[in-house]
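quick one, 460 residues, struct below
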Amino acid sequence: MTVTEKLAHAAERKAFETMLDSLIRKSRTQDVGKVADDLVSMVQRIHSSVWEPETFAMLHKIANDPSSKWAHYAERLLRECDPYLLRTFLTAAAYEGGFRGFQQARANSEKYDCNIPWIVLMDPTSACNMRCAGCWAAEYGYKQNLTFEEMDRVLTEGAALGTHACLFTGGEPLMRKADIFRLCEKHRDIAFHAFTNGTLIDQAFCDELKRVGNFIVSVSIEGFEDANDGRRGAGHFEKALAAMELMQKNRIPFGVSICYTSKNYRVVTSDEFLDLLISKGCYFAWYFHYMPVGMGAATDLLLTPEQRAYMKDRVREIRGLTGGKEIFAIDFQNDGEFTHGCIAGGKLYCHINAAGDVEPCVFIHYSGANIREKSFLDCLRQPLFLEYRRGQPFNDNLLRPCPMLENPERLPEMVKRAGAHSTDLEAPESAEHLCDKCHAYAACWKPEAEKLWAEEGHEV
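---
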């Protein structure tokens, strides 16, 4: 980066932080619509290519309608959260990652003819104090760890390419919380997030979150007590709620991570469940479709076509401009049409397991590159990731985005052509064995997906 570019970057960042400060201050005494509208205009002026014009128009509409659901949501976020943490995290996530970094990654993707991710997921450790059904990490074992130096190097190299967001998975990532906070301190231009079972969240941890400012978490939960503890173990539900209550008391924004299955999909999207989460201070929810990963993974937890169609409609209702709930919900399987299909293989994200293997996805445990042997860029240019780049989207019907779940014939072909190997840390599983568990599901979902796609006005 040249001196001129560094100065322009610093000026843009300062302007963004100043407007955020103004929003936070004014939210406590007056309407914030004008400042919010100015912030949207600034982003649109500087980074207009990040989003479609329709998206900016929607944001302007929300900013200028103080009675709207999302305006109220934004004011609640601004008024109820720690101001330093909110400003610091949003500057890293929205400005560095969402606007500037996204454009930087896109430019480098063209330059190097490979996918450059917006987000990198890393497993600091394979160790976990729980063993939950349906969790890919449950298959990993407990002996692998990334060193601080390895994670630091990946983040440094990634930021130079445009990757300014890091999500920690595991294992239980907070077992390495000391190293995570060191990374937060060193990489101030990166937004950090962890998926955690919540059992290691205490007051000291909350104090550290407020000190560094660029790190927040999502607590994994699968429904009310019976459903949740049936998958996560007796007593976890109460511990998860206690962690939420502690973060709410400390004015720390957080989300939840929910794996939905054929058994719990209605409960985890119910008004009662969402009202509970909101009452505890939750602001967003990541919904993940159950994946039958691992040699002994059950297939009866996969959804029927009718159940999945319900999830698609319900999540969109929850986060709609009107109605629904004041919680932002993302469904990574049914939102494929908004990301132009599968986001893995570095298109928007990639996964690095606790042994250093760089995988396309947290559910796809195959790789041909390891960060202990190659640079992050070279890992992104491995044959399997290039297969992803050539194949995306894997289906013109973006309600069928995945090369494993909805297009199970695609992944084994790519793995074979790339010469990739299984990276499962406990029991290696061939791509054919993995995808054999998905063929029946894919065949059942196809006609329903085609019907839904056509109803939305797309060609089938």
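The chain has two domains: 3-80, 91-460.
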